[in-house]
């Protein structure tokens, strides 16, 4: 990357908008029991962004294989496919100012249609699907758009309360352009009655924040006789432009 | 009425859960044949400039037990203090250096491990140099929002003494939680304590 002194697209910019910590879940949420021994008790120390937070790794599009975002096929034997409701999930990665975030690595993982993960420590009695691995990845295009193809994951019980169930969900890990934007979250499905009952969902205090994690069924983008479509936009932290900075960066 | 800012809200975080390794280090989790190798597993090669170091440690919960389902990511400058990032405008970082690493906790011990190079010094926003440091991001089951912290080096006492971030920490007694232990030539240990007397300093960045 050359010096940005005469480009208009890539100028040094200011720090990222502060995280709204009342919008995110707090560290300690006793009804989600694992958080009790894993939540820092002391307040995090506020730190204005330095270059260490305003920079982040670059992932090239050549990193991504053709089937990486197709969980129906990326683990399946040749000619076979994963079992379950076939779906397409699509959306854009945006920042808080509404701009698309291009070249953003998005990774996702999920249980199979029966609610079972392919993992050594997983003990749920639902069967493994020999044609389903449960992981995928993609990189957003120049407008921030991404898409993946998968089967709808099943809900599953988990050891927390005596009878807690996770709603159907897909885990998302997202990189923006800065380490300050790093985010892991979960996507839920419109209409799932388990969403309001889930202790992990309820770690988020504001119901309107929970709504932003629920993907909407989009019949217009459904692939006829193949897959239903769900739309899920992801918003990363936005960034001040240098006109609002009181000090220039080190150049 | 006033005008609207039309700002979006950041997508709220959810825990990475017990199976973050399936999504982020699938080969480590035993899901092979999907991706050729796990991202972030190799940070340096033979041509990378700088002094080779190893950083290892564990993420430890409030009972003193190491987490076995954590994922640790690090981000750091190259040996000259440049970041291999699109947001680095001071020059071009070593193209043979990734700057970013990702390590799953070992299935038995919970230990993470990175083979990297010692980072150079990076300027603070007022131009003063920060001490060499590595930025950490930690996620796991039970962690609702990924935790940011920094590791500093025990053999950089003078630079650490001038570091503008360390200088603003009110409780000086806690600074030690950000400084790795030296275990041998180029070998550092950085344990991350989520709670307790030695709770690591985490940053709201
Ligand atoms: Fe899950």
What tags apply to this protein structure?
heterodimer, A: 251 residues, mainly beta, Protocatechuate 3,4-Dioxygenase, subunit A, 9-stranded mixed β-sheet, two-stranded antiparallel ribbon, 3 helices, globular, B: 205 residues, 4-stranded mixed β-sheet, 4-stranded antiparallel β-sheet, binds fe (iii) ion
Compact description:
The complex is a heterodimer of chains A (251) and B (205). Chain A is mostly beta strands and 251 residues long.
Describe the protein.
With 251 residues, chain A is mostly beta strands. Chain A has three helices and twelve strands; from the N terminus they run αβαββββββββαβββ. Chain B is built from three helices and eleven strands. In chain B, 7% of the residues lie in helices and 23% in strands. Chain B has a single domain (38-193), classed as Aromatic compound dioxygenase (Protocatechuate 3,4-Dioxygenase, subunit A, Sandwich), CATH 2.60.130. Chain B has 205 residues and is mainly beta. In chain B, strand 6 (133-139) and strand 7 (147-152) form a beta hairpin. Chain B has helices at residues 20-24, 157-162, 164-167, and strands at 52-57, 59-60, 71-75, 100-104, 112-117, 133-139, 147-152, 181-184, 187-189, 192-193, 203-204. Chains A and B meet through helix 1, strand 1, helix 2, strand 3 and strand 4 of A and helix 1, strand 6, strand 7 and strand 11 of B. Strand 1 (45-46) of chain A pairs parallel with strand 11 of chain B, so a sheet runs across the interface. Fe (iii) ion (FE) binds at residues 166, 169, 171 of chain A.
